[in-house]
Amino acid sequence: MHMKEETAFELTADELDETSSLPLYQQIYTKIREAIISGKVPAQSKLPAEQELVQSLGVSRITVKRAFNELAIAGLVRRYRGRGTVVTYDATAPTVKGSFENLIDGLKRMGIETQVQLLDCEMISPSPAIAEALELSRNASVQRIVRLRILADEPFSYLVTYVPEDIAEAYSEDDLATASLISLLEKAGHRPCEATQTITAVPAEAAVAAVLGVTTGSPLLRIHRIMRDATGRPVQDITATYRADRFQYEMRLTREKNSDWTAE
């Protein structure tokens, strides 16, 4: 892969404030991050060498190294021994927005806008947590599905889903490689009508980081969702892990006089 040897990024000593309560490494990190997120420093560009910044900014090597390490942890750059620090975040790449208010429609749209790669599919005995979430007995079977969603040729989300065996019998593995699970559940006669979800921020584990193409420890958005059909039966337990630079949730809040905020 071709890498640009120069960037438009410049940082001078007068942009740093030694009297600030914000540590110098954090100031350097913030300045570089802003340049990357804005697209001023494009993907595959090389950042200035550590020693170059040490000399131009008049700071210690440890300060610059820590700033670069924070950028790597944030998934914005990748560090190569002997080759320098390369920007991996692409400000021009598309992102997907999710909504709390139109969850099902949003998931269907995501299925259309992204491509899916089936990584694994098998019938297993559920763990106690999965059995409880899907309201199944321990001797029941569930289908465990692992899939990777891709947006504009880039890994986008890593999905681990559990579906009760009798529902999973209504579709094939070939269907899982081409269709959204929402549509497959509808096809099976269990249209999702209700969902409970929890959203957390997590560091990328090594195995997930490798699949999503990010650095181990990079911040990821993890959504755990249990879906129920019109009868109230749990039909899907899914844990979706998203690249933070490719997915965001948004909601609009309104407030009338003397009332609490409500979502629209």
Automatic annotation (TrEMBL):
Pfam families: GntR, UTRA
InterPro entries for the chain: Bact_HTH_transcr_reg, Chorismate_lyase_/UTRA_dom_sf, Tscrpt_reg_HTH_GntR, UTRA, WH-like_DNA-bd_sf, WH_DNA-bd_sf
Record's keyword annotation contains DNA-binding: yes
Keywords from the named record: DNA-binding, Transcription, Transcription regulation
The UniProt record lists the keyword Transcription regulation: yes
Residues in coiled coil: none
Domain of life: Bacteria
SMART domains xrefs: HTH_GNTR (SM00345), UTRA (SM00866)
GO molecular function: DNA binding; DNA-binding transcription factor activity
Domain HTH gntR-type: start-end pairs: 22-90
SUPFAM superfamilies the UniProt entry points to: Chorismate lyase-like (SSF64288), Winged helix' DNA-binding domain (SSF46785)
Gene Ontology biological process terms in this record: negative regulation of DNA-templated transcription
PANTHER family per record: MANNOSYL-D-GLYCERATE TRANSPORT/METABOLISM SYSTEM REPRESSOR MNGR-RELATED, MANNOSYL-D-GLYCERATE TRANSPORT_METABOLISM SYSTEM REPRESSOR MNGR-RELATED
Protein name: HTH gntR-type domain-containing protein
Origin species: Hyphomonas beringensis
